Amino acid sequence: MILIWIGFFIFVLFLLALDLGVLHRKAHIVTMKEALMMSGVWISLGLLFSVFVYYGYENHWLGLGSIVDSVDFTFNDGKSATIKYITGYIVEKSLSVDNIFVIAMVFASFAVPPIYQHRVLFWGIIGALVMRAIMILVGAALIAEFHWILYVFGVFLIITALKMFFLKTHNTDPNQNIVVRVTRRFFPVTSHYHGENFLVRAGSKASLMSAVPGSPIEPDEAVAGAKLGTLMLTPLALALLMVETTDLIFAVDSIPAIFAITADPFLVFTSNVFAILGLRSLYFALAGMITKFKYLKPALAMVLLVVGIKMLTAKMLKEALGEYFNFYLLGLILLILAFGVVGSILSSSKEEKDDK
């Protein structure tokens, strides 16, 4: 079983190296066309991986499908594993869209130059993968030992869904965020951006760089007042810190959601990884038009509500709908998301016509 994990990690590292070392070796502004193409590639990879899941679990490659799934107390064969993987992938992918709204707010608040946004998201996703791997391993171990935790997760998801329905989120100043305030207290922070650097030393060549290539060099009061050689964070580092914190908060919602579908660590982790890997390109594809999807947030709340109820009533649903009731769950989730997207597009079109 350990070999399948090692192989998957090597595959993910290869994709990340290809992304940063080849496709985005030089900092540049990601265009809508490039973002849509990369989104298509990542989504295709995520869905194509389900073919590997099917044959891997059907033929028990390197021990796949040899452990009991603690959610429904069954051994996953190719069909059930594939349904659970795709359902988990779609749930995690849809919930990551909500993350995009917050990331857009963070970038706007810190005035992160578009040319460096991909760098922040890349390293933010590296941190997200590590954090989620730890949370998934801990969650899977807890569920295997204490099955009643699933009911706690179910109640938590329902409460989260209700909060998304009835509580409106307001744009807040990230500089008032407790994480940013604590960071500023313990680490010196530069006044301006210094290229794509997260760290600079006072008096170094990098500390004299301006935020955008070709723009005039402006004096950085924070660097000028610092002791020569002092290591300082840049605003880009603060933006990265906020992105990491944001993902940690969203992971608290999304990880219980995937455990409503399966507790198989490999299915949980791989569906999360492929959902996260496509987050950067999805951000650049949607960032300019997220305000048009006004019914998407209620749709995501409904998805969480459905998943939470499923977690609390899994045994009854299985008896009523049969062995592959997760397939019906997948269909319902897709239907909810489709209503949210189509409803948003129709509403946006109507508003544009009314304005004319």
Helices and strands in order, then pairings?
Layout: H1 2-23, H2 32-58, E1 68-69, E2 74-75, H3 78-110, H4 114-145, H5 149-166, H6 178-186, E3 199-201, H7 221-224, E4 231-233, H8 235-259, H9 265-277, H10 279-286, H11 296-312, H12 314-321, H13 325-355
Antiparallel strand pairs: 1-2, 3-4
Key descriptive features of the protein:
356 residues; mainly alpha; 2 domains; two-stranded antiparallel ribbon; two-stranded antiparallel sheet; 13 helices; 4 strands
Folded structure, characterized:
By secondary structure, the chain is mostly helical. It folds into two domains: 27-168 and 251-347, no CATH class; 190-232, no CATH class. It has 13 helices and four strands. Strands 1-2 form a two-stranded antiparallel ribbon. The model is unreliable at 210-217 (pLDDT under 50).
Number of strands: 4
Instruction: Estimate the helix proportion, in percent.
Output: 55-70%
Structural class: mainly alpha
> How far is the N terminus from the C terminus?
61 Å
Biggest sheet features? 2 strands, antiparallel
Taken in chain order, the helices and strands follow as: HHEEHHHHEHEHHHHHH
What percentage of amino acids are in beta strands?
Answer: under 5%
| Sequence of strands across the biggest β-sheet | 1-2
General form: globular
Number of helices: 13
Q: What's the mean pLDDT score? A: 85
Number of domains: 2
| Rg, Cα atoms, Å | 22 Å
- Low-confidence segments: 210-217
